[in-house]
Amino acid sequence: MTLSQAETFSGAAGRAAATPRRTTGWRRWRFALGLLLPVGLALVWEFAVRSGLAQGRLLPPPSRIAEALYGLARSGELAPHIAATLQRIAAGFALGVVAGTALGALSGASGLARTIVDPTLQGLRAIPSIAWVPLFILWLGIFEASKVTLIAVGVFFPVYLGTLGAVMAVDRKIIEVGQVFLFSGPTMVRRILLPAILPHYVTALRAGLGLGWMFVVAAEFMGASEGLGYLLLDGQQLGKPDQIVAAILVFAVLGKATDTLLLTLTRPLLKGYDLDA
Fold first, then answer.
1. What Pfam families does this protein's entry cite (predicted)?
2. Are residues 50 and 70 in the same domain?
3. Which of 57, 70, 222, 262 is least surrounded by Cβ atoms within 10 Å, i.e. has the fewest?
């Protein structure tokens, strides 16, 4: 190897090593910048209440919300509510993803299936979530089955639409390439279809998860005795706005955490795509 070749190789290696460091540094800055707005708003509101510019009776300052959150955690009351909500989200998300993926893939791959299934599902999609509540209570009672089913309905439609759109958007030319190379069915799916579908599918999963968190609130209004939605109702009935806002903040943190977890779990499948939140 000549001296110039060695210098070129060394420079390329140095740039390759620096790239992960730059990426890690940018992620840290992005995390800090993402906290800038909520922290700034919290500080402004705290100052406004303490200085008498605003009243904290209906919208308590962050210090009171933190006290309420600490009190719930210290008493051991918060953890069971979080666990109950997470269990419902996990079960509803799993059911919604399985059903949405299956019907979305079927409708996307078959024009006949799409003609039969899609109009009905589009009509059902327009029904507000709260409208399902009395029907599910009549069918399934006020226990876990009705709550999980309502969450699954919320997850189902984004996953169905995302899968349907992803399958229909696959370029037929690359399928023809696979046919030229005589790929078998499983090989065609693994080598051709999945790489084309996965980015859109993960986006659909994230949208479904987000709607699942929205639907769990309505689900836990259906006679629940535990869960973050129950904390919201309890705070409203007892006139505790600090508890209400504390529960809302926990919803926000858990929603973001589960979205990040989903991205982390799917990142190995999406090398070359930038889907970071």
1. BPD_transp_1
2. no
3. 57
